[in-house]
Structure prediction request, 618 residues.
Amino acid sequence: MDAVLKREAFRQAVVNTLERRLFYIPSFKIYGGVAGLYDYGPPGCAVKANVLAFWRQHFVREENMLEVDCPCVTPETVLKASGHVDKFTDLMVKDEKTGNCFRADHLVKDFCKEKLEKDPKLSAEKVAELKHVLAVLDDLSVDELGAKIKGYGITAPDTKNTLSDPYPFNLMFQTSIGPSGLSPGFMRPETAQGIFVNFKDLYYYNGNKLPFAAAQIGQAFRNEISPRQGLLRVREFTLAEIEHFVDPEDKSHPKFSEVSKLDILMFPREDQVSGKQAKRIPIGEAVSKGTVNNETLGYFIGRVYLFLTQLGIDKDRLRFRQHLAKEMAHYAADCWDAEIECSHGWIECVGIADRSAYDLRAHTEKSGTALVAHEKYAEPIEVEKLVITPVKKELGLAFKGNQKMVVEALEAMEEKEAMEMKAALESKGEAEFNVCTLEKVVTIKKNMLSISKEMKKEHQRVFTPSVIEPSFGIGRIIYCLYEHSFYTRASKDGDEQLNVFRFPSLVAPIKCTVFPLVQNQQFEEVAKKIAKALTAVGISYKIDITGTSIGKRYARTDELGVPLAVTVDSATSVTVRERDSKQQIRVNVDDVAALVKDVTDGVSTWADVLWKYPTHSS
Prediction:
């Protein structure tokens, strides 16, 4: 119980500081705000820009990825093909009297956590049961979730009224494209589909070579049932996604050895179901034993681990959890979530999935455009090939204006489906056939096509690539970084606790502050000279010429996570203070900009400059 109160007090201190210093605030606050929508203020914008700049450096540049930028508004037909129109849902329950809506799994999760944390009389058997429910929550079906709500007597949180049975609610925001209202669309729930539909052009741009990766940073929209937990569950958010296209027959990675020795906290599905704890496993071992499906997936797990820890995420509060069997999409080969522990528990911040060839196949079928790759053989080989020959005259008589779409759908059939149709045509003379582009089932008669197998010489292999997808929730990563970076320390007099964000220089919103010690013309001119030099080397800074005490000005900058503070106390030299150690050195005015740049760029450490410059004690 004490731990719960301590955690809640810590969270409140962090959130209060973030909102007071304008890292983020509720959107439309003067109108009462809207749940799940937030505005980033100046320091929040700077942190976000720095995180995204590092993401581009760490992934896009280092891996030579192709970056794209696609529209947020997406036609319905694209999201119908991807499965989002039918399946992008969460399970919802309603207060039967007020009509208020809640996410069913969140109510069960909150009930179990509250019981475990606040009910000291629970039997060992009940504790084990509740822990098991939390472990397999994402694996529960609609009926199982409904049974838990009824069995535990869970009611509406605010009114205590009874709840409806759970039912699916589609999370996409619907819109229409154009003034007629005849072209339905949605605000995209992820950025990935824009990459998939552009695969053919990206593959050509890459010289028709695999593997390659495309990346995109952009806004995504989800109409969350009951948004809460600040930046962790919102209705509009920034995603950074990578789609790494690879030959399904070769998922090795040439740079895997660079990450194979990383010792990472991993939580395989069998350990979750059996109630065990996450354990440290070298990523090379996890791949060789088959815990992680393949090298490319393992490589990205390692790269994600390095990205998050270099941002400032505590490696002991970062784990990679494997999806449970029912939680994972039927087409996926393997999925892992990078989860970061904060005051709200373990939060999924990055999903890393081997989605096999599902997306490209779905868009090939729906659009009629072949999203495939080619591998040329050194020598032609003889293979048995499926030959589908539509009789266009008969199909034209039967389907008239829809003939083209029926022909394309027939030619796009996979071998299994084609051979089943051949058997049906031979035994019954006709077969039912679903034409995706028409969104209806048609009847194909025996005289409308021939299906056979023939030996043919092939000069190349044509295949649909698999895709490995790391998907980053930038807002969630940033919030967890805020918590991992926050601490308090006593003021110099010991009469109050001061807030500090220990951001690495990489993500700090402002790299340096400049203070004239007292308000006089000479010191202010020196401060302006230093500011100009910092601008010239690309360092963000803030000048504080208020008349408040130097201690209060230091406290203000520590609360923004600024790594270095320059105090102008003479015309020729200044002091430079480091945030966490509070140590100070004396530096010539002309050397300040170069020193600050070296330290904030990571070229030198604070320990390096302590050797080089005389220390100063205030």
